[in-house]
Amino acid sequence: MAAAVIGVANGVCQSYLNHESVRETRELVAELCRHFYTQGWVSGTGGSISIKVHDDSIPKSQQLIVMSPSGVQKERMIPEDMYVLSSAGSIISAPSAKPYPHKPPKCTDCAPLFMKAFEMRNAGAVIHSHGMESCLVTMIQPFSKEFRITHMEMIKGIDGHGYYDELVVPIIENTAHEGELTESLSEAIQAYPKTTAVLVRNHGIYVWGDSWIRAKTQAECYHYLFDAAIKLYQLGLDWSTPSHGPIQRVFDGQRNINMAVNAGVQNLNNALELSCVEEDLHQGVAGAVPIPTNDAGKDEVIAYLVANVEAMIKADRKITGLKQLQGHIWRTGFQNNELKGVVFEDVPDALQKWHAMGIKVYIYSSGSREAQRLLFGNSNYGDLRKFLCGFFDTTVGNKKETQSYFEISQSLGVDEPSDILFVTDVFQEAVAAKGAGLEVIISVRPGNAPLPENHGFKTVQSFVEI
Fold it and tell me: Could you tell me the pTM of the whole model?
């Protein structure tokens, strides 16, 4: 079956269509589509792939792009089914129509989205997968605008990432027609300069690389990581933390008091740590109340939770469970536009400068990782998360303990702890970080506690001084 030549566009001559490289690229796209069908990425005619023709004899201004068609059984595709486009997106060659029951030929609905990756990232190939993992992983946290995972070996297969890095993939909302995703995908590519993929909620993923090999390799790694996150979620484990440790359980001696979950109180295990409640009771913290018995009703359990949460807040307890609860509350506030994260005016410019210099910036806060993401994602200067590589909270330890900074230096995988510069506004944190061998600067801000005389630390009053 011969392909129909549409005409000459953007100076592309028909003679280029007969190049061996074009024929090989057509064959490659057909072969990959058949392979992706076996992977479950392009079943039901969904999904697609597009590859630039790499041929030094074809001028860059006349570069060709091969795209798979829409509505075709991917496992039965042949090279003659392919479309050939110019670098500007004009169709140069289209397949001839096939007899019934085949539909009239149509270029993939993904074409405008593929072109955005080619234009904005100089991609050599783009893959669109409908793999189940890429769909389900966007549904675990239905309000999240990002998928995040860290400390997994397959992260190393994603361009620009290592084992210790936090991989962030933006999530955009699905629409009834694929072409309508073009603008939101373009915005995500621009907002996340490090990403090589964009997830579409309840739909799938777009992945690109500088060649078909890099696009395919990364697509495989992304699907592996999504599958791992789903399985960890099913096991009650948190895939977004360095330790992938269990979501905290609450125990009373040898007995588990998960009865609150059975009573309809969700996430009790993340809300309070029993050891902290017992410690508060032992120290006589005002407002702390004893743990209910196993036969307690839902109202009694809720009253216990509320009373102890309020007691911990008043006592300014820096514990993980409380900070996780804070993150959940913040999420609701930010989603309802009732909250806004406020940062000093020098912070955005400094983050942008460090990012442009290739310096990796991480946040370490007593606030939960979720709370940090919400704050920096909804700041008074917009979304600043694109300048950040990861977040640490008290799951690595108290901020005033030296061991916490040893843990961070191990997580970041630096050769020496002194390769890390820690900036803080708390003297005790500076001392702890210095004890672990980190370089330290104290940021002097309005409202800070006064520093001891002869404290020995370098100070700045603005991040522009760093």
Answer: 0.56
